[in-house]
Amino acid sequence: MLIKGFQKLSMIDYPENVASVIFLFGCNFNCGFCHNPELRNAEKAEEVKTYTEKEVLDHLEQNLGFIDGVVFSGGEPTLSPDLPEFIKKVYDLGLKIKIDTNGTNPEMLQELLSRNMLDCVSMDFKASFENYENIVRAKVDLDKIKKSIDIIKKVPHYEFRITLAPGITKDDILKISEYLKSVRANKLFVLQQFRPNKCNDKELERLEKTSDSILEDFSQIAKPFFEKVLIRKE
Questions:
Q1: N or C end of the chain: which has fewer CB within 10 A?
Q2: What pTM, to 2 d.p., does this model score?
């Protein structure tokens, strides 16, 4: 497992919890709006500090009682085959576990759930199924995405979220909302503001961030389908 980022304190990545965030190298998507391109590009990753498991665990242990949980992000953390073993070490410290995922590895999510090592999951819904590959710029097994959704809705706390990046339309929001309601995975939907800074696709850095009016308009489309809809801005 290659740890390429460690945020020791976050008040926003794990809602209602004080958390540390671990960023793992590797991703199977190539989203233009990604803010962590160094976590999927091996050449760029060489320029980024690598953290050892020991130094991460030592920090967590030293801050027990202050930190509530740990967020595993990336990149795509579920691509790391030794993720369960490391999560167990964190879980044994008495800390909650949250996973940020793109939903392409339901087998890993199922293993973590079966071992009772998932307290919260945030899945990034990239677009409607018809538009997925256009947005992520990669081949996508939509059956795996759907399997992940079925697993995630069994986790005690979960959210599905989408960044309103260029190319995302009202029709995307409507189709996603309809699908998640149809499979009863509709507790919480979060619309995230696109921010044109440090994008994987440098052309997107010339654009404006998602306006408040668009965020509100898109949220109104989703609200009839979910128990709760949130807007998340910088």
A1: C
A2: 0.93
